[in-house]
Write a structure and sequence with these properties.
heterodimer; A: 405 residues; alpha+beta; nine-stranded mixed beta sheet; two-stranded antiparallel sheet; 13 helices; globular; B: 128 residues; mainly beta; OB fold (Dihydrolipoamide Acetyltransferase, E2P); 2 domains; five-stranded antiparallel beta sheet; 1 helix; 43% strand
């Protein structure tokens, strides 16, 4: 243990800092509804933060640092969001950090919050993801998202994000003889789950025929193969185990954390039907947790497009390469299947406010493990995994959680 | 052995594309060939290389046709974004292929050729 002394408002405080490895827990979670929201980016961010603080039963003064993920704050005239959030929570002296990693911003940011608790720098932090984009309209949103690609080779040559995943889908379908109905099955399953989530953006039951008959966005992907552009904010309170135990509140434990990267441009990948960053991150997380894919009871994965979920569940080791489409068709990933995937509705139905998504996935785990998931509760689940990536998987993160009884 | 100012590599890549070629780097240490804009060898991480130009002719690995294109491409009457492998070396590039309106127009494996680099649409391809 090391003692440091610092000055705050002319009062010298002696604070012990323990640099030993700490167990990391989640003590509270909060989220706005995902969808088209009228409030400003700061208002929705604060709403989720206050929900998380109240859920944890703490005061803002317990928060020693704030980690904020956001991508397109500029579209709502607010960048440098972290200190604005800290100031509005009445803790302007608390350091904040804003992190951007495209659609993976939330999980990448969560990893930094996790690492700082684990290293003993802080005993309690806020991890907040937020996005406000729907007011820009489809064309501008599509364009802004294309800036998350390797623009010289992709966005600059006319590839939108649906287009990039469509090209990945075509490569996968060619290699493994999958078809458009296989993609549609993912959308149907996730919309069914989203119907049970009061905070989901797209609460609408759909059929395979609805998906196949929806307009083509970028062949072979159709409208219902794509997640919506969403606004929303999700927040978590992370703390060390000592802090969690002292609170007397229910908490869950983070037992695995992994980060991986892939070639930013799809053209640079040896195999377009897999996302290397997912595989790297998953291996790290499984190793840290000391478990295998078969030990996971449910997972929230990055289904920005239907093809992404098919590739994810293979890259995460739940199914062999090329076999996921058949397993999904047979119900293996439904809420009562052998490995339920996206009980929240996933990005596809719950929505995809890109700065918030990775945190929203963990909010779902917290709600599942703390008896707040209602009808979408996965019975007897004790181990859960979240998987989130930026762009076409260029930056990926996997986290594993354990229910604490 | 060549040492290039990295900020100039993209300009060189564009110049090559305007000449219907793809600019690549051959690693001096392990002979691995990579697209020119990647600074270090991905195999041995070496920084020494020779710049090589290959004919911009290859075959389609995958593609998509956009119905909802991003800004700057709305005025194009049908195009594909294509990932292709060069015939002469196993490296991939990607580009803009106008005139493709339906998937049947571009079976996987179709031959394409780089025809230029357009300020508005990037690396331009033609089906051959």
């Amino acid at each position: 243990m090391r003692i440091i002394v610092f000055e705050l408002s002319n009062i010298f405080i002696i604070q012990p800092i323990n640099y030993a490895v700490e167990n990391v827990c989640i003590l509270g979670a909060g989220s706005t509804k995902y969808g088209k929201l009228n409030e400003s980016i700061i208002e929705i961010a604060l709403s989720a933060s206050v929900d998380a603080i109240e859920s944890a039963g703490i005061s803002p003064t317990d928060i020693k640092a704030g980690y904020i993920s956001n991508v397109f704050g500029v579209a709502d005239k607010q960048v440098h969001i972290a200190p604005v959030i800290m100031s509005n929570l009445g803790i302007s002296h608390v350091p904040g950090l804003t992190i951007e990693s495209a659609c993976g911003s939330g999980s990448v940011m969560f990893r930094e919050a996790f690492a700082n608790i684990r290293a003993g720098f802080y005993d309690c932090v806020l991890a907040l993801g937020v996005e406000k984009i729907t007011h820009t309209g489809t064309t501008q949103s599509t364009t802004l998202f294309s800036y998350c690609s390797d623009f010289f080779y992709e966005g600059g040559n006319g590839a939108s994000f649906p287009g990039l995943f469509a090209s990945i889908a075509r490569a996968y379908m060619t290699k493994y003889k999958a078809d458009e109905e296989d993609l549609a099955n993912v959308a149907v399953k996730n919309h069914e789950n989203g119907l049970l989530n009061p905070k989901a953006h797209m609460r609408k039951k759909i059929t395979v025929e609805d998906v196949l008959n929806s307009p083509v966005v970028a062949s072979p992907l159709k409208l219902y193969d794509c997640c919506p552009f969403s606004d929303g904010a999700s927040a978590l309170i992370l703390c060390n185990e000592n802090f969690a135990k002292k609170s007397g509140k229910p908490y869950i434990q983070v037992i695995g954390s992994g980060r991986g990267g892939s070639q930013a441009a799809v053209q640079g990948r040896k195999d377009i039907s897999t996302i290397p960053g997912t595989v790297i991150a998953a291996n790290q997380a499984y190793q840290m947790a000391g478990i295998l894919p078969k030990d996971v009871d449910f997972a929230e994965v990055h289904d920005c497009f239907t093809i992404a979920e098919i590739i994810d569940v293979e890259d995460l080791g739940f199914f062999k390469k090329g076999k996921a489409a058949r397993e999904i068709r047979d119900g293996a990933t439904s809420r009562k299947g052998k490995i339920p995937i996206n009980p929240s509705g996933g990005l596809k139905s719950k929505g995809h406010p890109i700065g918030a998504t990775g945190i929203g996935q963990i909010v779902e785990v917290f709600e599942q493990f703390s008896g707040q998931a209602g009808e979408r509760t996965i019975k007897d689940a004790e181990i859960a995994l979240t998987h989130n990536f930026g762009a076409t998987g260029a930056s990926a993160a996997v986290h594993i959680f354990k229910k604490v009884n | 052995m060549t040492k290039t100012n990295h900020s100039a590599v993209r300009e060189k890549f564009i110049e090559s594309a305007r000449d219907s070629k793809i600019l690549a780097k051959k690693c001096d240490d392990c002979n691995t060939i990579r697209i020119a804009t990647v600074l270090y060898c991905e195999n041995c991480h070496g920084s020494k290389y020779n710049l090589l130009e290959y004919p911009g002719i290859g075959y389609v690995n995958t593609f998509t046709i956009h119905t909802v294109p991003p800004e700057g491409f709305e005025d194009v009457d049908g195009y594909a974004w294509v990932v292709f492998t060069l015939d002469d070396v196993s490296i991939r590039a990607s580009g803009f292929l106008p005139g493709i309106k339906k998937p049947a127009d571009l079976p996987i494996g179709s031959k394409v050729k780089v025809t230029g680099f357009d300020a508005k649409h990037g690396l331009v391809l033609k089906k051959i």
